[in-house]
Write a structure and sequence with these properties.
Length: 179
């Protein structure tokens, strides 16, 4: 690094993108920097965030540095967090959602044919979570419902449009069995 300010900025950025936190040694290794210089930058950042008296601080626990919320603001965000907590989707729900996403509009029968098993409960759950909806009826006897994704689906996966999704062949190449 060319100077202390740039090093400090790089340390701050690494902490921000790490999500789970980093040790001083991991930061030093990642930046190819001296451990003492990293520790000085970390100490300076910790002090600056505390002095700002903002809602975010850099805390250290067990040698790991991470961004956290200041304890005094927790009551203000507690209700927000309860309301905004994303419900996780099961593996089978993700499988059904992927089929609908890439094949839409698609019927329940077509989803079942692809999966080789009944998907009714997953479709019902995805509809109740507003990730998919009925987008029409197929022009065949019985006129089965056609399913497609919703705006809430895009928001859930932080997408602006379906065009941002990877091509199906890239998704297929991923080995989800190891997850």
């Amino acid at each position: 690094m060319s100077d202390a300010v740039e090093l400090r900025s790089a340390v701050e950025a690494l902490l921000f993108i790490s999500g789970t936190g980093l040790t001083a040694r991991e930061i030093a290794s990642g930046l190819s920097a001296d451990l003492v210089e990293i520790q000085i930058a970390l100490d300076s950042l910790v002090d600056d965030y505390l002095e700002r008296n903002g809602g975010i601080v850099i805390s250290e626990g067990g040698g790991v540095y991470r961004f956290t919320t200041r304890g005094s603001v927790f009551p203000y965000i507690q209700n927000f967090l309860k309301e905004k907590k994303k419900e996780t989707l099961s593996r089978t729900m993700m499988e059904v959602l992927a089929i609908i996403t890439y094949k839409q509009p698609v019927t329940l029968y077509e989803i079942d044919e692809i999966r080789g098993t009944s998907s009714r409960s997953q479709v019902t759950s995805l509809v109740s979570r507003n990730l998919i909806k009925v987008v029409g009826q197929k022009e065949v006897p019985g006129r089965p419902s056609l399913y497609g994704t919703t705006r809430a689906f895009l928001e859930y996966f932080n997408l602006n449009s379906l065009e941002e999704l990877p091509p199906p062949e890239e998704v297929k190449a991923l080995n989800f069995e190891e997850l």
